[in-house]
Amino acid sequence: MTRLFFGILASLGFFVATAPAADGPPPLAREFRGVWVATVGNIDWPSRPGLPAEKQKAELLAILDKAVELHLNAVIFQVRPMADALYESKLEPWSEYLTGTMGKGPGYDPLAFAVAEAHARGLELHAWFNPYRARHPSAKSVAPDDHITKRRPDLAKPYGTHYWMNPTHPDVQEHSLAVVLDVVKRYDVDGVHIDDYFYPYKEKNAAGAVIPFPDNDTWEKYQAAGGKAGRDDWRRAAVNQFVERMYKEVKAAKPWVKVGISPFGVWRPGNPPGIAGLDQYAELYADAKLWLNEGWVDYFAPQLYWRIAQEKQSFPKLLAWWAGENAKKRHLWPGLYTGRVTGTAKGWPAKEIVDQIEITRTRPDATGAIHFSAKTLVRNAGGVADELRKVYASPALVPASPWLATGLPPKKPKLVREIVGDQALLRIETSSETRFVMVRTLSDEKWTTTITSAVGEKTAIPVSGAKRVVVSVLDRTGRESEAAE
Fold this sequence. Notes:
Layout: E1 2-6, E2 15-20, E3 29-30, E4 32-37, H1 53-69, E5 74-80, H2 96-99, H3 110-120, E6 124-129, E7 133-135, H4 148-151, E8 156-159, E9 162-165, H5 170-186, E10 191-194, H6 216-224, H7 231-253, E11 258-261, H8 280-283, H9 288-294, E12 299-300, H10 315-324, E13 331-332, E14 335-336, H11 350-361, E15 368-371, H12 374-379, H13 384-391, E16 396-397, E17 414-420, E18 423-429, E19 434-443, E20 446-453, E21 468-475
Parallel strand pairs: 3-16, 4-5, 4-15, 5-6, 6-10, 10-11, 11-12, 12-13, 14-15
Antiparallel strand pairs: 1-18, 2-20, 7-9, 8-9, 17-18, 19-20, 19-21
GO molecular function: hydrolase activity
Keywords: Hydrolase, Signal
Domain Glycosyl hydrolase-like: 31-341
């Protein structure tokens, strides 16, 4: 497959950094640097429902450009907040967070747009799903007839301020898996992502009593069929089955697509000793430790949303504990609560996030982090983007996933130089498995690194005036080819 890249220095605008000249281009670190883009309640994008398509696109591009500016390398984009879709779907209606009306499309496909624009900037794009939430308190529009709360009210029932699908109903599992696989098969996403919402966080009624989860129908059916497990174990088993099936079925569809889960940061109080807080195993019926132990993820991003000095939820202690549970040696990329940096007296200082990154870097078994969320970085709240610009001073490659790789590493690219007028042109021929192209040029005694997509579109590469040009390519699992010069 032939890819054409045109060297026009003035139009350079993608994943770029410079370093002093040496015998060769500087090696790049392998570190996952991700950011969540939350669409539920219009947290990050779009800024409000009903914006014109071009305004929505401009806002999304601003997020992607900020990610590039800060030398991030992945965006985790929420595509299914509440049994709806931020993409063209035959399975679920359009999300109201786009137009203000559930079921009404925005006139373009946001996921397709996000994938193309992220890849053009050298960023991975992971599709983020909520497997069971059917309606969020921020929802304002009436659900259309094809929404699951209308189409199958037996599957999605009111729970406090939400509607929630019943994880123990086999039709719920089949439907949510179908939604995930539909996206995997139709879109060129780099990952599938699930957050901490499995069973809902418990809600209380007006009298202050915990509201029981509405699954009596499937529980009674299970018991009538001779089921012997306790109710809590039965619920956990349903979630475990979903997680295992999702991992295996995504791999059957596209083996290179990474599966990631970002659970609540504490598995159970007392693990490790001294840790306290919510018991996700007992309250959310999420046995996240099991999923990591079994390798039903390619990356694991526990939400370590506490300060380093907060002993009962100690960031370094929890990170070390999760690392100790990583029997299959999957990627461990903790979630950081960067949004707590607000520039106010109640907020965190930006240094807290920097220190958490540095603690993570001391562990060879934790090779990156994910920031919640994008708006904090775009706004530079509390100067946090300025600080990240320092701690992420140079670009980094996403860590490779060798357990996903098949066949040989990508082939060394072929380079053909041409002169057209006063412009230097570089044609780069790559194989079909190439995901990203990395071009390193030497000019003015400095190396400049550019990472961009391997799509067949004209892409700005700093070739004109360069003393040396070194090109390598990366495949979808992160393997790098031999460099060509």
